[in-house]
Amino acid sequence: MNFLKILIALIGTVCFAQKSDADARKALDFEIAELQKKGYFNGLSVAIVNADGKLYANGFGSSDVAAAKPYTSKTIQNIASISKTLVGIAIMKAVDLGKLKLDDDINIYLPFKVSNPDFPNIPITVRMLATHTSSIVDTDVYLNHNYFLKPDQDLTGLPMEYDGQKFIDRKDGLTLENYLKAALTPDGKYFDQKIYTGKPGEFYEYSNTGTALAAFVVAQAAGIPFGTFTEKYILKPLKMNASGWGFSMVDFKKYSRLYADPKSPLPFYELTTYPDGNFVTSADDMSKFLSELINGYIGKGKLLSKESYVEYFKSQLKPENYKERKQNNPYSEYEVGILMSFGPTGMVGHTGGDPGVTSLMFFNPKTKIGRYLVVNTNFIDKEGMRNFFAVWDLLEKYGVGLEK
């Protein structure tokens, strides 16, 4: 009799929890949908995860306004600089495999020499690239020769430049290797000595070019293309089957159109330096990656050894390595790991921004709950930004409740 009472009580508790969970999901769906309907971004997707996996994922609005295609948790798009967190994992996987060491001179692996002309005797190391201290910075060359158009698309009425970034014809684009050689070597077609600023290892200077070079070093050390390396050691183990580095690795039918503003579509584009920002994925797939990061943080990850995850999440720099630090932004790179960011409040993750893309992926190291948000439309005013962060705050508000 006592057993029966206990069983009935347990069933009642489970049913109540399921109802509460369903109610919370409906409430979150409604609140995000209401924010999206204000018209500041055409489409977005979100996810909430913990170490056990996905707690919530959904999409809102349109992935293509003209075609009336809905944006869902399976819709894919490029996620900008959040891509760098995968480069960090790839670096540490290469370390685990014995392919390279963090403090190796990158020229051990490169088919062309990379050296700061002002400091030719100071080697640039893998760690410097992974912590944005290599002295390699982004110049106008990056903006003018990096964003190339998807072939065979209708470009009628679409801009060929956005916010200083030019969209170039694919035939004028370069491979990653040729671009890096052209930009970084003194005899390169696009070389400008301004691409090297300061002493290697001395100051933090965020570098897309440096990240792309780090990925190329991994590929050279491993003897396979970077996309193949990450597919083998990251995407397949996590079953991120909808994801890849650009159009050739994904199902384009699921790809979202991007927008300069709610009424202005952009052309479909890719990046020559694709590892720094051209990872294409969905909210469903990113929930798997973010959950793995949380597991790695608590010593239970499966992609890397415990030692490599410790290094990945370890603050790599000293205060004197930073020229300035933004203490008022909880998602700024107040400290850095191996292509991983730590905000001043301790949040762990990365931000992203590109033409038509704004993205956030962070987890709270105390609650072990992670959030992901990406939109397919650039903001045109502060109210749009406020709405973006209102969605972000809702994910935090409901996250703890969904976990319980």
Describe this structure in words.
The chain has 404 residues and is α+β, with helices and mostly antiparallel strands. It has a single domain (39-403), classed as DD-peptidase/beta-lactamase superfamily (Beta-lactamase), CATH 3.40.710.10. It contains 10 helices and 16 strands.
Q: Please report the distance between the alpha carbons of the first and last residues.
A: 30 Å
Name the average pLDDT. Answer: 94
Sheet with the most strands, sense and barrel status: 8 strands, antiparallel
CATH level-4 homologous superfamily? DD-peptidase/beta-lactamase superfamily
Q: What are the low-pLDDT stretches, counting only 5+ consecutive residues below 50?
A: 3-18
At the fold tier of CATH, the topology name is: Beta-lactamase
Report Rg: 22 Å
Number of helices: 10
Sheet with most strands: strand arrangement? 3-2-1-16-15-14-13-12
What is the global morphology? globular
Please write the CATH class name. Alpha Beta
Helix content: 25-40%
At a glance:
With 404 residues, the chain is an alpha+beta fold.
Give descriptors for this structure:
404 residues; alpha+beta; Beta-lactamase; eight-stranded antiparallel sheet; four-stranded mixed sheet; 10 helices
Topology:
Blueprint: H1 2-36, E1 43-50, E2 53-64, E3 69-70, E4 77-78, H2 84-96, H3 126-130, H4 140-145, E5 147-149, E6 161-162, E7 165-168, H5 176-184, H6 208-222, H7 226-238, E8 259-261, E9 264-265, E10 269-271, E11 280-281, H8 283-297, H9 306-313, E12 335-336, E13 341-342, E14 348-354, E15 357-364, E16 369-375, H10 382-403
Parallel strand pairs: 5-7
Antiparallel strand pairs: 1-2, 1-16, 2-3, 4-11, 5-10, 6-7, 8-9, 12-13, 13-14, 14-15, 15-16
